[in-house]
Specification:
290 residues; mainly beta; Tachylectin-2, Chain A; four-stranded antiparallel sheet; globular
Length: 290
């Protein structure tokens, strides 16, 4: 059972504006939060020693109007591989969303790997957009889970693989995860996921379940290989909006880590009330979720 931090939200304010779709990692003794900064149409990073108190945001990548596909940047993930930071991000323009790649030596100043996107919508079910990349690097193979469908909110989750992080091969059985009509909390669509490989539960995924286009909750599922036979957590949804709170309308895009020191899962997400979106925190005691 996830319990929301009583001091939420932990990042975002009327001054900063909307902060959303986070991706949190831990480097030594500090947490790194990459997130979308709507006011700046850019990607930014913030750091924390406890996962609650975060430093002022630093922009890591800004729009480039020259490329034709990234007037607005958001929804990214960042990995450190062999000493280099690699980022996959969403670029938006003209009603479309594509996925791009950028690299950095210091984790702050990123440079695009290419002026063109590395993943674009090509299949009917992808509609106008591919977005929200979540990438794992396993034994020389890049594995990407991404959302696809409509631009305002995606509809399904899909999978692709790459040997270099730039040239991707989409799975032929895509989409690999779709809405479950029997579950009211995700009857409309699914989107924005993070996937983690674990030793005891296989591939663990937290994702957004949409009751309708405006009401969303956070759910969980697992799979032995991260592609097929996903089993939804019987206790779904794990996080829901709280009436009259900062996340009263919707809870979006989870990012999670295991904290062995406290024997708990930590989950960050963006909550929405009206037009405002800020970042909150929730925790769940104990390792086993399934």
């Amino acid at each position: 059972m996830f319990i929301k931090y009583e001091g939420n939200p932990v990042l975002g304010s009327q001054t900063l504006g909307t902060c959303f779709d986070v991706y949190v990692t831990k480097e030594k003794d500090r947490y790194r939060m990459d997130f979308s900064w709507r006011k700046k149409k850019s990607l930014a990073v913030s750091f924390s020693t406890d996962g609650i108190h975060w430093c002022d945001p630093i922009i890591t990548l800004s729009p480039d109007l020259r490329t034709g596909w990234e007037d607005n940047l958001n929804r990214n993930c960042v990995l450190k591989i062999d000493g280099q930071y690699q980022m996959w991000y969403t670029g938006q323009a003209r009603g479309y969303s594509f996925i791009g790649c950028a690299v950095s030596e210091d984790g702050i100043r990123f440079e695009r790997s290419s002026a063109e996107p590395v993943l674009i919508p090509e299949r009917g079910w992808e509609k106008e957009s591919v977005m929200n990349p979540c990438v794992l690097y396993e034994n020389g193979l890049y594995r990407m889970w991404y959302a696809a469908g409509e631009t305002y909110e995606p509809n399904v989750l899909a999978y692709a693989e790459s040997r270099d992080g730039l040239n991707w091969q989409k799975a032929k059985i895509n989409p690999i995860f779709t809405a479950a009509p029997g579950n009211v909390y995700e009857q409309d669509r699914v989107g924005g996921c993070q996937v983690m490989k674990t030793d005891d539960m296989g591939y663990l995924m937290f994702y957004i379940g949409y009751e309708n286009i405006d009401k969303a909750r956070i759910c969980a599922a697992r799979s032995d290989n991260g592609i097929t036979n996903w089993q939804r957590l019987p206790g779904n949804p794990v996080i829901s909006p709280d009436a009259d709170s900062w996340d009263a309308d919707a809870c979006y895009k989870p990012s999670f880590l295991w904290n062995p020191e406290k024997d708990e899962w930590i989950l960050w997400y963006n909550g929405r009330r009206g037009h405002d979106e800020f970042i909150g925190l929730a925790t769940s005691a104990g390792r086993r979720l399934f």
